[in-house]
Amino acid sequence: MSVLERSGRAGRAARRAAESGSGPVAGDAEPQRNPGARNWFGLLGEVLTVGILVTLASVPLVTLPAALAAGVRHMRRFLRAEESTFALAWNDFKAAFVGGIGVAVATAALVLVLLLDIDLANSGALPGGSLIAVVGWVGLAALGVAVFTAAGLWTPQLRWRGALRAVPAAVRSDLPGALYLVATGVFATVVTWQLVPLIVPALGCVVLAVVAIPQRPRRRMADEQR
């Protein structure tokens, strides 16, 4: 093999390593923001894997917030091409478990109240039922955004109390992102209602959306301008 061939192969290997995040970038080139997302098939497989993990961990229902938080952190590590083992995800789930139960119970109670209001409004038993129904649906959407955002903000250091306190500021700073989260929740609900097993990829998509929406290009450009 000639020196030029070896040099060419070494150069191509260096470029692949730089693009994937596994190696240094050359010169003034910018490193990839999410190198783990370059392989679309790998990303699809990871979305399905995370969906399975979140679904299994959410079977008791009260563990859903903890499962989402652990799934988000796992997906974030994967996209950054960092170590993303199941052991790390399990540690995150255990750390988020206790506080997550309180979040799940409070969320379930609010969901039941809002669904009851919507049902009563649709029954015609309440005056101004249509307005009450709208308020109920808006409340459900806001609750979903709050849970998704808190799961995205949660860390073992911040914990659930800090994550929940940071939700209003996060939503105010990115109102379009909150609408995207609403659309994500509606999508997950509709596909699961149509076919229950689709909850697995739906939850995987929710986790990916929670990670990706704050990092979308429009948000990054706005942050740089500020």
UniProtKB/TrEMBL annotation:
Keywords: Membrane, Transmembrane, Transmembrane helix
Keyword Metal-binding: no
Transmembrane domains' residue ranges: 47-72, 93-116, 128-154, 175-193, 199-216
A Pfam entry, by short name: DUF624
Keyword Nucleus: no
Region of interest: Disordered: 1-33
Domain of life of the organism encoding this protein: Bacteria
Protein name stated in the entry: DUF624 domain-containing protein
Organism of derivation: Herbiconiux daphne
